UniProtKB/TrEMBL annotation:
CDD domains: AdoMet_MTases. This is Methyltransferase domain-containing protein. Gene3D superfamilies: Vaccinia Virus protein VP39. InterPro entries: SAM-dependent_MTases_sf. It comes from the Bacteria.
Length: 247
């Protein structure tokens, strides 16, 4: 399946899922408020050449959607590509304690498995081997990203990853060509104490190499000039397709 077709199917699935969410909206908790399926547009910008058929390779395999919010993308992969899907998140920091994902499993009569795992305190994935893991918008929420990525490289062939990056430090020091990261204060970025490490692009690429990943595709979106680690209007995001060198 070419990616253009996959994108259109993803957008149609999003519309159907949003309608169903509205219909069964719970009264005791809220759905995750952001459009996680919009990542399909960033993956569209990321993938080029033969990688635009990469989802053919993933179809039918076991995949993990880690840091999954309500698991929307995982449900799409099951419905459209026949994947066996593990939805993984840390319930105490998930927007609704993973109740949204569990409700959707019942509503969709899905075989998606929902797992509560704190990757910072333990690394015990539900399966030994994955065709791909989706690790979108999670890296800067980890206290120990080196350990997690190194461990993940021993279990997954491919990784789709996104995270915030920065070109300048808050004091204006240029960091984009240095392999460094910035450690946020608890309230420094969106008043969210679960935000920790914001890498420079060079630092992020060094992290990939040191933890057992080869960069297959890489792009950035958002504020791509003078981005910083804490300002809402200076938010730059990196998207990468990685291949494990540890398997």
């Amino acid at each position: 399946m070419d990616f253009d077709t996959l994108r259109e199917r993803a957008l149609a699935f999003r519309d159907e899922l949003l309608a169903r969410k509205d219909k069964i909206a719970p009264t005791d908790f809220g759905w995750y408020p952001y459009d996680t399926m919009a990542n399909i547009f960033h993956l569209d910008a990321l993938l080029s050449g033969p990688q635009r058929q990469i989802f053919d390779r993933i179809a039918g395999t076991r995949v993990a959607d880690i840091g999954a919010a309500d698991g929307d993308f995982g449900f799409f992969l099951e419905a459209e590509l026949g994947c066996q899907v593990d939805v993984i998140d840390n319930a105490p920091t998930n927007f609704n304690g993973l109740r949204g994902a569990r409700l959707l499993v019942k509503e969709l009569a899905s075989d998606v498995q929902v797992h509560e795992i704190d990757l910072d305190s333990q690394f015990a994935l539900p399966a030994e081997r994955y065709g791909a893991v989706f690790f979108l918008g999670l890296l800067y929420h980890l206290k120990n990203p080196f350990f997690v990525l190194e461990s993940l490289a021993r279990h997954a062939e491919l990784c789709f990853l996104s995270t915030r990056v920065a070109q300048v430090a808050p004091d204006g020091t240029r960091i984009q060509h240095l392999p460094v990261t910035y450690l946020l204060n608890p309230a420094e970025a969106n008043n969210d104490a679960t935000n920790y490490w914001i890498f420079s692009e060079t630092g992020l690429r060094r992290l990939f190499a040191r933890t057992g990943w080869e960069v297959v595709e890489f792009t950035t979106v958002g504020c791509t000039e003078d981005s910083d680690p804490r300002s809402q209007d200076r938010d730059e995001r990196a998207f990468a397709l990685l291949r494990s060198t540890a398997l």
